[in-house]
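A reminder from the course coordinator: this example appears on the midterm review sheet, so study it carefully.

Given structure:
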């Protein structure tokens, strides 16, 4: 395996998070929550949107390559989509505390696992890694709506 292929897999796995023997998506989401206060939340809203667009495209291209390298569709160890999802869920919130980040984690995992309409259907709307990224982006929108409601109700 080439050095660039190893780099693609490391990116898709968020380092070691995707290699967790159980629930790699949960570990990837937890890693996204830990990284957000340092690399995402300090940015302005405009920069956050740009970062999300870049993660979507580079994540989709990398996930496509990872599928080919690993020989299977949507491998569980590819968790770059979880980073995208958690960060979309946190997108509009300025300086969220631990409770809000924990709620973002829980809500995103809920919608990513149960895949309400149109999340499950979207897995096949785009080819390869783009479908991998899209379903988590849509799960994140569900989570964001719920988190926004909890925030408005002053629950988190």
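Designed residues:
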């Amino acid at each position: 395996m080439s050095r660039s292929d190893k780099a693609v897999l490391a990116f898709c796995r968020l380092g070691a998070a995707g290699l967790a023997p159980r629930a790699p998506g949960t570990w990837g989401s937890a890693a996204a929550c830990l990284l957000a206060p340092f690399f995402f939340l300090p940015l302005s809203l405009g920069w956050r949107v740009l970062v999300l667009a870049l993660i979507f495209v580079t994540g989709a291209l990398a996930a496509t390559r990872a599928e080919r390298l690993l020989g299977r569709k949507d491998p569980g160890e590819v968790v770059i989509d979880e980073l995208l999802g958690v960060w979309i869920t946190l997108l509009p919130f300025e300086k969220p505390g631990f409770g809000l980040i924990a709620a973002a984690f829980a809500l995103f995992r809920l919608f990513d696992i149960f895949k309400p309409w149109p999340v499950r259907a979207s897995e096949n709307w785009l080819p390869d890694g783009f479908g991998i990224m899209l379903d988590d982006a849509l799960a994140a929108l569900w989570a964001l709506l719920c988190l926004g409601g909890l925030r408005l109700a002053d629950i988190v």
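Residues 3-152 form one domain. The CA atoms of residues 90 and 131 lie 21 Å apart.
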